[in-house]
Amino acid sequence: MMPFRISVPASSANLGPGFDSMGLALGLYIHLDVECADQNVFFAHGSEESEENHFIWNITTQVAERYGAALPPCKVQETNEIPLARGLGSSASAIVAGIELANQLGNLQLTDEQKLAFGTEIEGHPDNIAPALFGGLTISTMLKNDIPSVRLNDIELDLIAYIPEVELKTEVARDCLPDTYERGYAARASAMSNLAVAALYTKDYALFGKMLENDLFHEPFRKALIPNFDLIREKAKEAGAYGTALSGAGPTMLSFMPKGNGEKVKNEMVKQLNGYQVQLLEIDTKGVSISQNI
Length: 294
Hints:
8-stranded mixed β-sheet, Alpha-Beta Plaits, 12 strands, 10 helices, EC 2.7.1.39, globular
């Protein structure tokens, strides 16, 4: 086995009204550098960890057991650029990394559909799994025996992430949502989502930004949990952003702006925010990828 690297992008789910269905792959990555060894060794966070207690390796083991594969012993070095519990899909990226590690070590030749199905089974929903696998902006849902998805790669926007120091667990952000929505309210919320997708297809980015900021499904209920929610949205709009939305369940927020304006908006937003990483990010268009380490 030649040494190889698995790279999996971060992702931002929801994108305003695309609740639990839209996800965008971002240029922050989990990397796994893999090589032959006499026994399994997993390095993460700068030190050796027990593979039995490591989340990625547990996923790898589950996949191998599902498909009856014996995996050769290996050394794995994890490098993670994705902040945890910040709404950037870190758990989905780790799941995809674990699936791909089993796929490569066991020569399983899994299809995209099998990877998506297994990842969704573990994560519970495909909105972060799909962009981590496929790259670009994906729209996906769960049917009884299928997880259909559509990918958009040709998005001509710059984006900035505002990543606070505080964490927000997904279950906390999920608990603040209503159990049901009144029919008329749900219809309006769905219309916002439809318009957001149509705006992306037609490259009407001003309309896309407007829809980002008119979500009814989750942001009205979560904004109280998010530091500087209104300030970030207001100042980003003043600096030239089309619109700003929560990344996943938050607390990270994401602004979209005309291509080429990202550095200008970033510099302005850095002045407005203390205790934040303000990052100009690329849209990842490849999804999970394999490269040889020579």
